[in-house]
Amino acid sequence: MSESVLVTGGSGFVAGYVVRELLGRGHRVRATLRNLRRGEAVRRKLGVEGDLSFVAADLLSDDGWDAATEGMTYVVHTASPMPVGEHRGQDITTPARAGTRRVLQAARRAGVRRVVLTSSTAAAIPAEPEAPADEQTWSDLPDQPRYVYPRAKTLAEQDAWRIVRGWPDGPELTTVLPANIQGPALDEDLSPSVTLIRLMLTGKMPALPHMGYSIVDVRDLAVLHAEAMTAPAAAGQRFIAAGEFLWFHEMAAILRDRLGPDAAKVSLRRLPNWVVRAAAPFNAELNQVVPSLGVRSRLSSAHAERTFGWRTRPAADSVLDTAKSLLSLGLA
């Protein structure tokens, strides 16, 4: 059944695949952009047919959100800044929290049935390293620069649950918590997770920190968003989206083993933990990875599997498809 869906952050990596999935299911999709001049470029990037339109809205402004949510049955809120690229060194907590509140409030005024919020497994870090984590787990981290991203995602999601609990007449809320997101890049505007594979392919990661991630494929993540949007059983639920864990050296080995000459610049050298810790005070991005050194996350997606029969594809396939897309785009 065709219904109307607003997807925030329409030019983003996750949003692009969510838009594709929703259009493929016959929904009418409206996507927010900070600059409407990007609309045609986004449409070409997605290469989709169907009822897709764009509206201007910004997480830091009230303008545009009522127009964006008007007539929508659902909202999928993927937009949130990360402390890299244009937001490097900036406050990301304020726009993450304020943007979430704006979207929810506009959704309520518009009579939206359900909001699906893209959170992160960074909001489900257990107190003990390597302890199992599921939807009952919440991150509780100190207010320090190295924890800026997980704190922003945690506080924004907690705000969302607190807000909707005060609205018994809706909208409903469902949150999806992806792990490290891999999968084919759509253009040169790369997400930080995809940039990791690019750094390896281009030789700009000459030594590999002893860290890793649980992987979710962006194509499967889009499916989970679509299921969480409409399934009655998903209302009021959190869903972790995570598959196999890979260390950086395992990702590098996959690239070297399966790409042949195209992975000639991929390094297999290990970077000792003490070197990362010594350099961290002088490098903001290294400082943020220190808590992950040597930690193998144990994230469970059993809730999504039980509810929807959902699971993500093998992590090696996602990493390889990411690399192949970068090569085909001339980005590696």
UniProtKB/TrEMBL annotation:
The record's keywords, sorted A to Z, are:
Oxidoreductase
Q: The NAD-dependent epimerase/dehydratase domain covers which part of the protein?
A: 5-235
EC number assigned by the record: 1.1.1.219
Residues forming coiled coils: none
Q: Which Pfam families match?
A: Epimerase
Q: Which GO terms describe its molecular function?
A: dihydroflavanol 4-reductase activity
Q: What class of enzyme is it?
A: oxidoreductase
Protein family membership: Belongs to the NAD(P)-dependent epimerase/dehydratase family. Dihydroflavonol-4-reductase subfamily.
Protein name per UniProt: Dihydroflavonol-4-reductase
Native species: Paractinoplanes abujensis
